[in-house]
Amino acid sequence: MNANLIKHQTYKCIVEGCSEAVVSFSRHLQSKRHGWSQESAQKALSYFNYRKRSSDVGSLRLCPLQKCMAIVKRMDNHLKRYISKLESNQLKAGSIKKYLFSLLDFSTFLLSDKEALILTESKKSEVNDIKVKLSMWRKTYNREDRKKFWRRQDKDYMSIITPSEVSSYLCSEKARQAYELFYFLKINQRPVTQAEYVVTRDHMMFEILVGTAHRSGICANVTTDEFKNA
């Protein structure tokens, strides 16, 4: 048989900005145009689901989730598998809700940007349908998320510093050493030892944390004046 009559299967590159039809998709991805590594390019057929029937290729969709580069035909099934994978990694219900909320944000973006909607080759009705399903799906984690919230509250309550503990520290030897060292350094200048540094550091952190315990991000949001006056 004449080799020129043999029809090789070609693959249409679906990397953004490239629609070239090639025989060796793996080799094409390693070219200067895309610069994929050999390891990634060798997995390209499975990676882009090109092992499916050629008639399916036109309906493939790129997963919108960050760090997920899968291109699939049934986005709903893929997302279910993706969330199940997250659950198997022992992610908390609150984290899963955040992943789903990011998809809701993406759906809202598609509905507000006509060009983006056209690029995804989706219809408004399809996006609206997915958005409703995502919203209902997200609500299924509310109960578990509330349980986690109250567990955290109980844990925080058990670790509350009591007034007696505060008084006990202020009367301790370490607090007395810190006070004496601060008073000495106001008048004199000399290098401090590692032990003295630890004592003063711990005392300053105690003053900052206890003095502004009602505020979130105590150490990160403390002002310079508050730090000096601690």
Question: Can you characterise this structure?
Answer:
The chain is mainly α and about 230 residues long. It contains 13 helices and four strands. It has helices at about 25-30, 40, 45, 75-90, 95-110, 115-120, 125-140, 140-160, 165-170, 175-185, 195-210, 220, 225-230, and strands at about 10, 20, 60, 70. It has a two-stranded antiparallel sheet with strand order 1-2. Strands 3-4 form a two-stranded antiparallel sheet. Strand 1 and strand 2 (about 20) form a beta hairpin. Helix 5 (about 95-110) runs antiparallel to helix 7 (about 125-140) and helix 10 crosses helix 11. The longest helix has 20 residues, at about 95-110. The protein is elongated and about 85 Å long. The chain starts with 10 loop residues before the first strand and ends with a helix. The model is unreliable at about 1-5 and about 50-55 (pLDDT under 50).
Summarize the structure.
The chain is mostly helical and 230 residues long. It has helices at 25-30, 38-42, 44-47, 75-88, 93-112, 114-119, 124-139, 142-158, 163-170, 173-187, 194-211, 218-221, 224-229, and strands at 11-12, 21-22, 61-62, 71-72.
**Poorly predicted residue ranges:** 1-6, 52-57
Give the overall pLDDT as a whole number.
Answer: 76
- Judged by helices, strands and strand pairing, the structural class is mainly alpha
Query: What is the H/E order?
Result: EEHHHEEHHHHHHHHHH
Number of strands: 4
Largest sheet composition? 2 strands, antiparallel
Overall 3D geometry?
elongated
Question: What is the spatial order of strands in the main beta sheet?
Answer: 1-2
Radius of gyration: 30 Å
- Taken as a percent bin, the fraction of beta residues is under 5%
Supply the number of helical segments. 13
Distance between the termini: 89 Å
Helix fraction? 55-70%
